[in-house]
Amino acid sequence: MNIAALFRRLACESKAVAVVEFGLALPLMTAIAFTGAELTNFVTTKMRISQLALHVADNAARIGTGTVLANKQITEAQINDLLTGANLQGGRLDLYGKGRVILSSIEPVANPNPTNRYRIRWQRCRGSKNWPSSYGRSGDSNLTGITVGGQTATAPDDGALMFVEIAYDYQPLIARLFIPQNQITAVAAMTVRDQRDYGGGSNGIYNNENVVPSTC
Length: 216
Prior knowledge:
Number of helices: 4
Shape: elongated
Distance between the termini: 84 Å
Low-confidence stretches: none
């Protein structure tokens, strides 16, 4: 068989076309599949972090002990339990190994509060990530509130706003190349439900159990 005949035969051969096309498309399809899997995992993790922030704020607004005739007292042990519960809710996220939770009590500077100014009365943190609060630190005063995305949250007179920040270092399934960012942040706020004792203890927090506070 001469060379010309061989090329004519190869030109008419179609048995391997599908294999060649599959080989050419495989890298693109693999990249699309990896990107889809990574983005799905990223969005799911982001949603879980957001839900954790909401749960911490909600639970912080509910804690406290006392009778129906007395204002509720909150303790360092209750706050520690609250933060421990957040890690348990996070499951395999390893919230405190890869992230940080900051819980702040936003309160009026006076009661009544005619100037509409607020302060961060106390702040508690947990997590190994080095990440300071983006909204202030314990002791900050003369605040107009906490502004997030153009919306300002404030505390009612004789009350408090529990404000939570979470920062988390996302660990990719495949590679960081497929995700828009490697740090996830979330915030949430809840107004304290019941009448709370703000005058006792240290900044309104009691420590009858003598536990180590989760200070920042």
